[in-house]
């Protein structure tokens, strides 16, 4: 079934993406498969992954360190947008997909490939994110998804790979499906498929159980420059180091766990467990700083923009025209969102306990009830009369 001559395959080293290599060549007539593994800060050693791709039949095996791009070009924009899908999930996995798609397309163009491929099944969100993003970046490239079409069970997939020298894991496979990167971990499957079952403690890696967290609170100060986190406790940090250190600090206090029933784009509900300590704290701190530096009308209007933005990222529309327009609006709102937010980390909670900014709109002389009060209380009566006039007219007409 010849669909393409040269293919760049998104590669993780797992069973599905490894089997994709011989499957593309022997079943679909692809002449050459180049694999690309993205280093998103998942912590895995990627040299064995690179070597496994070559042993599985790849002509070239590429590894791209994109941790810095991931944070600066994707995560930071989501923080500025206070992006929480269904008001809970900070999009750690969803944000990685448009970046992987981008480097796939870049590699395809560099190596003269006529298609890109991935190992997504037909049930998840990632297939949509890859397919739509790649089509937006280069609509001339073909998109191949063997695992969506081959119809093999897990056992049959492993057996197919063994025919071509791809060994299956010797150790007992974890019942969980886990995706991880610098921004967090997502865990599903196994006993988690029953939404009534409490997640076993063994599934967590980035966050401590509350019983094991410190008995004293830890205070941290996060500095923002135009909506982007730049300092931690007064020290300038590069983007990757800032996320890593905040993951460790918040996770040590049991902060960052999410257990939710999520509405997938394909129409099904799934039970998802996430660990995302740094992103949850950063979005909470950023939103609080906005409350100090943005006018009321921008703050209220931006909430609707944030909801649309979040849905677009989740639904794989990162490279769409509307997303670009929303980006422009959000960037404009961030011009004055600079300052420092003090956060208390303790027993699973990140509590904002202070905030300062040179651009603060908080005016103590107007807010105080003390002797320094500069607010003209007499002006309130006229304001209330004009403000309530439509309501009074409506009430009078109703009674008459």
Automatic annotation (TrEMBL):
The Arginosuccinate synthase-like N-terminal domain, residue ranges: 6-166
Protein's name in the database: Argininosuccinate synthase
EC number: 6.3.4.5
Similarity comment text for this entry: Belongs to the argininosuccinate synthase family. Type 1 subfamily.
Gene (UniProt): argG
Cell location: Cytoplasm
Organism, scientific name: Hassallia byssoidea VB512170
Coiled-coil region list: none
GO molecular function, one term: argininosuccinate synthase activity
């Amino acid at each position: 079934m010849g669909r393409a001559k040269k293919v760049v395959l998104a590669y993780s080293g797992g069973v599905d993406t490894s089997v994709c290599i011989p499957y593309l060549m022997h079943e679909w007539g692809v002449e050459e498969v180049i694999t690309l593994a993205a280093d998103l800060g998942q912590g895995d050693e990627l040299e064995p992954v690179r070597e496994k791709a070559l042993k599985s039949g790849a002509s070239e095996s590429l590894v791209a360190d994109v941790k810095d791009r991931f944070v600066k070009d994707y995560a930071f924009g989501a923080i500025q947008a206070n992006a929480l899908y269904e008001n809970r999930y900070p999009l750690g996995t969803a944000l990685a997909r448009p970046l992987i798609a981008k480097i796939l397309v870049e590699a395809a163009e560099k190596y003269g490939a006529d298609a890109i491929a991935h190992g997504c099944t037909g049930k998840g969100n990632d297939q949509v994110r890859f397919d739509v993003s790649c089509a937006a970046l280069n609509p001339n490239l073909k998109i191949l998804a063997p695992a969506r079409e081959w119809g093999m069970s897990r056992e049959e997939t492993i057996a197919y790979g063994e025919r071509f020298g791809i060994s299956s894991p010797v150790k007992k496979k974890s019942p969980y499906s886990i995706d991880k990167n610098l921004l967090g971990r997502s865990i599903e499957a196994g006993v988690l498929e029953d939404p009534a079952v409490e997640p076993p403690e063994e599934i967590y890696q980035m966050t401590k159980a509350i019983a094991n967290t410190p008995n004293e609170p830890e205070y941290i100060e996060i500095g923002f420059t135009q909506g982007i986190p730049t300092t931690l406790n007064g020290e300038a940090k590069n983007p990757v180091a800032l996320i890593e250190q905040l993951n460790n600090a918040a996770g040590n206090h049991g902060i960052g766990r999410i257990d939710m029933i999520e509405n997938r784009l394909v129409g099904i509900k799934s039970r998802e467990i996430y660990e995302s300590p740094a992103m949850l704290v950063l979005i909470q701190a950023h939103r609080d700083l906005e409350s100090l530096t943005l006018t009321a009308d921008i703050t209220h209007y931006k909430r609707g923009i944030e909801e649309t933005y979040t849905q677009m990222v989740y639904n794989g529309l990162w490279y769409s025209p509307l997303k670009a327009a929303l980006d422009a609006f959000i960037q404009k709102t961030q011009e004055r969102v600079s300052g420092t937010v003090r956060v208390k980390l303790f027993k699973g909670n990140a509590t904002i306990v202070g905030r300062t900014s040179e651009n603060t709109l908080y005016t103590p002389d107007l807010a105080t009830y003390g002797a320094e009060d500069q607010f003209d209380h007499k002006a309130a009566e006229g304001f209330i009369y004009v403000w309530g006039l439509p309501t009074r007219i409506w009430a009078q007409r109703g009674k008459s």
